[in-house]
């Protein structure tokens, strides 16, 4: 009669022997838990294929990322930078055109191109307006007379009066580079020369200002 004895520890030794035969090695990157085989220092043990060796007690709850059984938590991306609102563009300069008609009687004596004191006060106000503009594009000064006297004399008188206005504006800060003068004599009347009132309206200096001002 033959008696057979079963030794419980034999199964464990056999498992360890099989691992050794398959080239099991320690995995220094991670620590084993109850679901994985570890070495004497508790490091994970991998087989010849580089896979972690699981114990018979392994459950999904034991899954380790080092063994590829659990996806490592993704690092949340950095928040996108908050866009900075661009400042509103500065308003475009406003282009202005101003036309002024000054009576020659208020500016000059009869047959004279010398500006009277009353006329100087009016022209100073006009110069102050021009100098307030952000950018002066042009100041056109045109002199006119009535039809009394010869056309040649009237043209020269109107030109001298336009030049006198230009000189006075320049003395009050207006750049000569933006000014132009013209004498048209008795041309382009605005009223009838048959009456004294009409002739007074025709004797004039017209000034047209073009420039820009900030809004």
Characterise this structure:
By secondary structure, this protein is α+β, with helices and mostly antiparallel strands. The chain folds into 2 domains: 9-67, no CATH class; 94-213, OmpA-like domain (60s Ribosomal Protein L30, Chain: A, 2-Layer Sandwich). It is 28% helix and 21% strand. The chain has 5 helices and 6 strands; from the N terminus they run αβββααβαβαβ. It has helices at residues 9-21, 104-107, 117-131, 151-171, 196-202, and strands at 25-31, 43-46, 94-103, 135-144, 179-183, 204-213. The strands form 2 sheets. The chain has a 4-stranded mixed β-sheet with strand order 3-6-4-5. Strand 4 (135-144), helix 4 (151-171) and strand 5 (179-183) form a beta-alpha-beta unit. Helix 3 (117-131) crosses helix 4. The termini are far apart.
Short summary:
The protein is α+β, with helices and mostly antiparallel strands and 215 residues long.
The CATH superfamily of the largest domain bears the name: OmpA-like domain
Largest sheet: 4 strands, mixed
CATH topology of the largest domain: 60s Ribosomal Protein L30, Chain: A
**Given the helix and strand composition, which structural class is it?**
alpha+beta
CATH hierarchy class name of the largest domain: Alpha Beta
Beta-strand fraction estimate: 15-25%
pLDDT < 50 runs, ≥5 residues: 1-22
Estimate percent helicity: 25-40%
Q: Compute the number of structural domains.
A: 2
User: Shape, please?
Assistant: rod-shaped
Strand order of the largest sheet: 3-6-4-5
The oligomerization state is: single chain
Write down how many β-strands occur, each being a DSSP E stretch of 2 or more residues.
6
């Amino acid at each position: 009669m033959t008696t057979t004895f079963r030794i419980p520890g034999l199964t464990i030794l056999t498992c360890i022997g099989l691992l050794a035969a398959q080239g099991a090695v320690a995995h220094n990157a991670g620590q084993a838990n109850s679901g994985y085989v570890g070495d004497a220092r508790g490091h994970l043990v991998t087989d010849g294929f580089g896979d972690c060796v699981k114990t018979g007690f392994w459950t999904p709850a034991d899954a380790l990322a080092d063994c590829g059984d659990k996806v490592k938590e993704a690092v949340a991306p950095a928040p996108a930078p908050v866009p900075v609102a661009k400042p509103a563009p500065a308003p475009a300069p406003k282009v202005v055109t101003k036309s002024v008609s000054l009576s020659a009687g208020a500016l000059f004596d009869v047959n004279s191109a010398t500006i009277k004191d009353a006329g100087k006060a009016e022209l100073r106000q006009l110069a102050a307006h021009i100098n307030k503009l952000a950018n002066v594009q042009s100041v056109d000064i045109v002199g006119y007379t009535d039809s009394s006297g010869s056309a040649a004399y009237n043209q020269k008188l109107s030109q001298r009066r336009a030049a006198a206005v230009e000189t006075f504006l320049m003395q009050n800060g207006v750049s000569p580079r933006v000014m132009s003068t013209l004498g048209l004599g008795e041309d382009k009347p605005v009223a009838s020369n048959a009456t004294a009132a009409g002739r007074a309206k025709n004797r004039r200096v017209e000034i047209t200002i073009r420039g820009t001002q900030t809004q």
